[in-house]
Amino acid sequence: MKASTSGWKSTSSSSNSVAQDAGKYWFSTSCAMAVIAQRRSSSSSPKGSGGINFGGGGSSSKHEMADVKALLFLALVCCSALAVNIKSKGRLNSNEADAIAFLDQYNSEYGPILNQYVIASWNYETNLTDENAAAVGEAGAVAGAYYAEASATAATFDTTNFSEDTKRQLSYLDSVSLDDAESEELYNILSEMGSIYASYQACRSNPTTGVNECMYIEPELTELMAEVGNYDDHLWAWEAWHNGVGRQLRPLYLRYVELSNKQARLNGYADYGDQWRQKYETTEMETIVQDLYSQVEPLYKQLHAYIRRKLYNAYGADKINLRGPLPAHLLGDMWGRFWVNLNPIAIPYPEKPSTDPSPEMIRQNYTVERMFRTGNDFYTSMGLLPVPDTFWNLSMLEKPTDGREVACHATAWDFYDGKDFRIRMCARVVFEDFQTVHHELGHIQYFMQYAFQPLNYRDGANDGFHEAVGELMSMSFSTTKHLNTLGLLNVPDDPEVDMNFLLFQALNTISTLPFHLIQDTWRWSMFRGDIPDAELNDQYWAEKARVVGVAPPVGRDPASDLDITALFHVCNDYDMIRYFMRTFFQYQFNEVLCEAAGHVGPLYKCDFYNSTAAGDALAEMLRLGASKPWQDAMEAMTGQRDVLATPLLNYFEPLRVWLEAENAKNGEFIGWDLPATKEKAPVFLKDKLRGKLDVTSPKINKEAAKYLAPIFAEALQSLRKVRL
Predict the structure, then answer these.
(1) Packing angle between helix 495-508 and helix 653-665, nearest 10 degrees?
(2) Of 64, 286, 440, 543, which one is the catalytic site residue?
(3) pLDDT, tens digit, for every residue of 149-198?
(4) Which among 242, 569, 591, 599 is annotated as catalytic?
(5) Best label site of 42, 154, 434, 452, fewest CB within 10 Å?
(6) pTM
(7) 440 catalytic residue (yes or no)
(8) Which residues are paired to 509 by β-bridges?
């Protein structure tokens, strides 16, 4: 997770569309309301209490909380059963005109219902009260009932001879679930895993003060891991987190794998990993990602060797082996995902002028609103759409000072009425947040451009596209050229300043590529059944050592540990290949827009501010939304149907040359020796591919809302885009 945007929420849904994912959740609420109503009629709650009350009823609150968890789950069962029943009754309708009429009605009727649910969700997240939580459930009951009926109707059509567009729209409304007992079990497992992750505290006696202290992952452990220098602190935190979380999650995760695979097969996939890959609408996804990484691996290895030397200088020869993998606990976060927090010890020329304009922003009396208006100007300068007037009085751009409790993590929201788009953020006047402003406005631009599309197409072309657009615009804004134009920097054209900038960019991107790749290629192998349960953790670290060049700092117990689960995305059922693909999309888009803008010179100096040609090229792709396969959307902007590594490599070419010279000067060993106990890497994806190529609602108080946060997150993530 990026250091600038720590949080537990993910970027986009693991389903094929916003409406499909949200609809499943909402129908669960609808079913739950009926049962709650029945229970309320016989409950002993005080008259007028409005439903189940958490937090104030002694021991009964635990049981009531469990009731609501179970009740929220019911829609998955109801919706699936209804669709299956419809499919089994009589002959399917092969009249495409009827299907088109149904879709037209669905879009006209469901949009306003969806809008009301998003409004209720917004009100809750910007004012965390029991009443607002209840309103979310009530709006969800209405939306869920409608979606269930629409899903069942969609299942009555025989689409064999329909147009591709009609087939595509209907496909977003079609899914089959497990039977009642297994659906409930899977739901409960996911809920429990999310709760373990969110609630675990690592406790110790402070080595300096002797005072007992306990730390959550956010913010305490995250802040501790971001600091460079205290080896023992990092070791304690890493071991406490992975032992405390991973060992609890292991048995739950193994059962989650079994049930997820079974559900995927019911829907026609080979396994759950296959279902994830099919979101990219190609059967060659495994080959694509391996080919992309093979092209950037030499650059990663140069960066790895350079960082290993810097860690050696910081921690000493007894802690860092100059021929070995990097210790996983010294890379700037709990998982070694982003290395940006190592920049203070890694910056090539620390004596050069800083490229952080935060002090100048303060001197010029920047406000949060000015940051957003400056960002909006960046987009309109390219001929892109301005945010609507309502954006300025309906968004939450700063943390309220009226005492409300709010969710602060930066998110962009689409209200599905074609005119209401908002950002919720507790922005500060610092450059880090200024970058996030431009990123979130990228999501808003995407929303506005595809707002005319049918509901099921109002999403990015794939999981990586939405994120790539936001990162792309933030990257262009962050160039020294653009910041000089804004009067926030006065940095001369200096190749050493350029190298500082490029190294920081690499710590934020290049370092993540093998991490994201292995998180999913290993899970693909696990979903396929290629890894015996007894070898799961050993083979995970063997693959991490082989590809990422990272090793655990202490011995691991193969019978108890499953360290991959101690990451939010894994235990909360999100794929991570979206982040791998995002990085390549981002630089591919950047190269094309720089060319359209008439940029001459190094790509890292490109700024497409004021280029309407670049804006036109971007808008053409954004308007497609999810109406076409991502390859078609890619072709609309780049003229290419394939994702390429060359734009990323071109961008970082000066850094590659510098790293090679620096590493050669220091006599660095490029690569790493595998730990003796893990020297035999598992037969994983790479080897398989080689062979292939050769041949009324509950009332929920704050305590309950916090406990149920993963449930709300899963439903709400599709409604707005989160920088992660």
Answers:
(1) 100
(2) 440
(3) 898 899 899 999 999 999 999 998 877 778 878 988 987 898 788 888 87
(4) 569
(5) 42
(6) 0.79
(7) yes
(8) none
